[in-house]
Amino acid sequence: xxxxxxxxxxxxxxxPTPTSIEWSDIESLIIALGGNIKQNKGSRVxxxxxxxxxxxxxxxxxxxxxxxxxxxxxxxxxxAGIQ
Length: 83
What we know:
Elements: H1 3-13, H2 23-32, E1 36-39, E2 44-49, E3 52-57, H3 67-79
């Protein structure tokens, strides 16, 4: 993981939940952690990491993910063993 990945991970776990995390940064972090991202129909995305899966919608047309998605990602990363 490089410095940008660490910054994105810190932002996901920050409280209060930030509203400025860009989807491309999250994709990059998941891949750096060894995960897989599969684009499904429309904006649906499946994230697989360490035996866990998460199905969410990628943001559009904006770049930043919504607060509820950041919270889902936080829970998902915790389940997958990422702190």
